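dumping the sequnces here before i forget
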Amino acid sequence: MDEVEVRHLFSQALDIDPAERVAFLEAASSSVHVRKEVLALLKHDSGAEAFLEQTITGAAPSPSAAHQRFGPFELRDLIGRGGMGAVYKADRIDGELRQVVAIKIIERGWLNPRALERFRQERQILAGLAHANIAALLDGGTRPDGVPYLVMEYVDGPRLDQYCAQHGLRIAERLRVFLPLCGAVEYAHQRLVVHRDLKPSNVLVTAAGQPKLLDFGVAKALDAEAAGRTQTTLVLTPDFASPEQARGEQITTATDVYGLGAVLYHLLTDHPPHVVENLSPAELQRAICETGPKRPSAYRAELAGDLENILLKALHTEPARRYRSAGELAEDLNRYLERRPVRATPDHWSYRTRRFMARHWGASIAAALAALAIAGGTATSLYEARRAERRFAQVRVLANRFLFDFEASIRDLPGTLPARRKMAATAREYLESLAGDARHDPSLTRELAETYVMLSRAESLTGESEAALRDVQKGLALLRSVHDDCCGTPAQRWLYIRMLLELAHTGMDARSPVGARASTGEAVRLARDWISAAPHEVKAEQALTEALTSHATVLQASGSPTEARPVFVEAIERGARLMRQNPDDTDLGYQVARANYLFANMEIFLENGAAARERAQAALEILERLLARRPDSIIWRQVRVMTINVLALSLHLLAKEDPALDARALETARRAYDLATADARQNPGNWALADQAITMTTYLANRLEGNGRAIKALPLIREAGVGIRQLLETDPQNRRYRQLSLNNQVRLAQLMIALGRYGEAGPVLTAAERYGDQLARDVPNDTLINSQRLSVLSGQIGLARKLGRLDEARERCRAALSLAAPIIKKDPALEKYLQGLPDVRQAARELGVPDPTT
Amino acid sequence: MTAEPARITDLLHRAREGDGGALNDLVSILYTELRRLAEGELRRDWACHTLQPTELVNEAFLKLFGDATPAFKDRAHFLGIVARVMRQVLVERARARRAQKRDGGLQVPLDDAATPPDLIADLLAVDEALEILGREDTRLVKLVEMRYFGGMTAEETADALGESVHVVRHDLRYAQARLRKLLTDLG
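..and the predicted 3d for all of it:
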């Protein structure tokens, strides 16, 4: 028999639902022997872990406790062990009366002040509870050698679940055995005690069929002032733990409601609410906090309906949506037994939709908070030394899981920005707390670097360009400290290149493009090196495509479109070839679409209408194909809007030759406006979308004005102005927003002049002039800014002439021309950017002002 | 023999680089230490306790390294070695116990009575099954040792071996199932 095959199939079968394993094996192997062996091993899989644990742990040296005296009692058998204590059956031996009791002692390893304090607390709590369904405290004390102990009522009977199984109880009978527990828990709650560890092994059933609740070992007395809440420490019995316990959040009486629900769930389905075997800490968190329990009816069809609703209400991941008390749960169960309508109803769909988002980030932030609980404190004792090491791994796993898996899954969903920022910031906090421990661990350093990028991305989307730039720089610096230019793994090379591009983009978004050109240039160089080192590496090709696209964009933006064109051409040619080889790679598709769009955008500036239209259509075709797969991707939608806009611009350019295209240009512009404003409305707080909506609004206004409908354009320009002011409030220094604002002021003035409202236009232009001057001082030699300043001057010239102030007009003309001259000298192609220039030149000619630019 | 933390660290480094002699020295130091911990010293403490393998490993770890906490990779590696030694210690204890009981005449010390005979038998059977499994695949045995005798989590084990957690987890389950089946087949 082929052992390799057996092992392989066994491993695959582990990932498959047990019910489907037989079918899977039938299909996967033709050998009867192999299938038989794998099935036999799978059968042994369950319980193997517990068996080995018990055998090996149990064989460790363990001096006997039997026959030891505790007050008037002598220990007999060990009857249970859990958490920090062990419970023994014990007899009274002082001859007075025969009495069997249970004695609980702390295990040696747990003997520390905190455990002693807990033990003392348990004693105090139990002393205050006298209920028929709670195992009573009889006595307690401390032996002369310092061992503290509790003497408790000995319950002679099986566990609740075993009792139900042994007696073959039907559903209604199981409910009746369970119900008194709700009373016991309610009773404890009224005395401000939360049990916190309700599970089947903590409930025994007496011969008379009475359930008895045991083990208040982790119970907590609620502070009366804390109004029913208490802080948790991480005590987990994962199968039955509530989400708030898993998250390390506040424990309330709702936690016990969950615990009761969990016990009942197990009683009715024979399964715990979460199957946690073989899960990593992160998976565990996810199972408990996000997924919620499997529908009970999946285990047992007859539970569908009311009982299922009751269980799911008790086990709701949100404490506030559970039964408000154990008593309410009992009432609903009684209603069910009496066939009256129950209170629990399934979640409404709109609620579930809302939950979808909340679940995605809330739980993960919580997971990280739980990690913080683990990470708290420093290693002092023996135990803690070990725990510190484990904590390290746990925190790292959690922070990573949470960032890398999770960020990717929500990156694109609407409305997730604040969550993403918080998430990245939280994860950064954890990873940084580890950074000191692992200064020389390159993989951790890389993780940290990536965290910075994610944080930076979220920050630039919320408009905090300063912070975004700072964080991406931090990330790059970290990465540099461990990066090896020539011989990294593909993943490392890719990461480094991406980081450089990220820095360039962030730099462009923020104050200035200084360094952006160097970054993209370096990225292109590294990608080329990589390709020559690994000619068949698809990732390398992809990296080069991306780097080239960014490099071309930066070249264009820093005023050198002539240099940019061949770079764009190379990016698109390479990208298109890759895309043909990998037709299902959506990232790649997006890259090519983006390069086409950016290229089209540049062609518009160079007034190559036909070329721009062709590129824009190529981009749109790819984008529509991508969006057919995933319609709600924000990034793709965003690029689609921009592409439609560029298409409108190209149609407008072409309409100069073919006036029939003008109507189509306007119609296309309106489509971009509709899409952009709708997306922005649906994602408040996403500044990238707000920014886009402003651009589209402005553009549509321009088109309307161009078609002689200035009066319709004016409200659109005002609408855009409101949007820009909101953006500037969040990020006053943002260069792009300031530019947008300047542009908006210019447009407003121009429209007013066009509508003959000269009195209103004057002050707007004066304000715009001041605004532009300040901006130019902060960002010197920026072509776009200077172009807008030129437009302000052009507006002022027009206005002065209309009002007959010819000297003022001449003076403005001279100022405008001396602003334009150095730009044109630097690169004649830039003349196209200077939209106000033709008017200024004409005015200069008419007013007799010498023109140094011609 | 009390070993200096610096010496342990040095041995550990050399062992990692494949120095067989250093590994032997290290194992013998660990063995002595774990044995002493398991057999004697702690009994003076109070009577009711269970000394878990993990605790033993911790005690040994702290004794050997003191405050000179080694780097994470070293620790993981160390724990791997400890797990193996731990298995040796426990199995030898179990054998000694079984021999005492077979001889009958010898009084079993009261405070050792708590390891029930069937657990001793089970442990020795597990050890035997591990031997058989080891003839096929030593790596599987190493996984089991680290996980159970060393008290390490799957993540820690994966980290120490430089493998993915997913693979380690699946292999562990395979190893466990094999052991369980071997035990059933052996009767």
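Chain B has one domain: 5-186.
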